[in-house]
Predict the 3D structure of the following.
Amino acid sequence: MKPYEIRLTRVAVKDFHALTPKLQLKLRQILLETLSKDPYCGKRLVGDLAGFFSYRLTYKDRIVYSVSEPQRTVFIHRAKTHYGE
C-alpha cells in the first residue's frame, strides 16, 4: 500500500525549526517511517482536539496531526510541547 503523504502547517514548520537538530532528525524518522505508513498508530485526542491524533516525540513534546483519507494525507499541526511552554 502506498504511504500517506505528510504535509506540515506553517505552525508545525516553525515548531520544527525550533527543535534541536537531533530532535529534527527524530521527527523526520517518525513522520517517514511510522506516521506515513500507519497514521492511526497515534493516540486519538478528545475534547477541543477531537479528530486529531497525538504521537510522542519526547517526554514533553508531541506531534499533533490529523488524517485526510480521501487525499491519503497526514497533516502535521504541531511538533512541540503541549504543556504551556
